Amino acid sequence: MRVVLGAAAPEVKALDLRYIAGDGDVMREVHFTYPNEPAPRVVAHEPKLPSGEYQLQLDVDTREGRRAVQRRVTLGGGSTQVDVSSALARENKPGEEP
Question: H-type helices in 5-89, by residue range?
């Protein structure tokens, strides 16, 4: 599994992943923290779960607050990539440059 944080990676302090099976059971939870260094643009890990469909819940703690993202993923026979960079893109406040 690869989670793409993209350009917002330096703002990420922590990342929580929860893999939820079709019956609602949480099958695996993973927590990454980056207290003293920037998060990588792409976070990689091996979930070690049976092949199949999962609801992936991602909670991303940034310097501006927490963002929650959900994606449906299919695991098995290769690498799965989830791009959350657009969900982490900073929204410009009035008077700020884009």
Answer: 85-88
Listed by start position, the domains of the chain span: 2-88
Q: Is 36 left (phi over 0), alpha (psi -120 to 50) or beta?
A: alpha
Whether 82 and 4 have beta carbons less than 8 Å apart is answered as yes
Dig out the tokens for 78 from the structure.
């290769």
Q: Which residues of 4-43 are buried (b: 16+ CB within 10 A; e: fewer)?
A: bbeebbebbeebbbbbbeeeeeebbebebebeeeebeeeb
Per-residue pLDDT of the chain (98 residues; tens, 9 = 90+): 999 999 999 999 999 999 999 999 999 999 999 988 999 999 999 998 999 999 999 999 998 899 999 999 999 878 899 999 999 886 544 444 44
Class of domain 2-88: mainly beta
